[in-house]
Amino acid sequence: MKVIMYSKENCSLCTKAMNVLREINEEFPLDIEEVDIYKDDLLLEKYQIMIPVIEIAGKEVEYGIIHKETITDFLKNVSS
Predict the structure, then answer these.
(1) Contacts for 46 with CB less than 8 Å, ≥ 6 apart
(2) What pLDDT does 76 receive?
(3) What is d(CA 71, CA 32) in angstroms, rounded to the nearest whole number?
(4) CA-based nearest residue to 6, from 45, 59, 58, 63
């Protein structure tokens, strides 16, 4: 499953979110791509105060503080 995490450098919430995704990756095979919003003006404008943002299958699933349960529930619903 393709997962995009929009983030920025030196972001403690982003680090925590990546750790959550790595935990989930043990149960669900994920293709995780981390995208720095500061390298794209449109992404910076869109997400500047929301990061980290987790996008799965083209849908923004969660942002800010990322919860493992929210992501796994979404993945279970998409998989079924």
Answers:
(1) 37
(2) 93
(3) 13
(4) 63
For 8-40, letters b (16+ CB in 10 Å) and e give beeeeebeebbebbeebeeebebeeeebebeee
d(CA 69, CA 51): 18
Q: Which two tokens stand for residue 70?
A: 């929210």
pTM of the full structure:
0.93
Q: The tokens 């990546």 sit on which residue?
A: 18
| Cβ 51 vs Cβ 16: under 8 Å | no
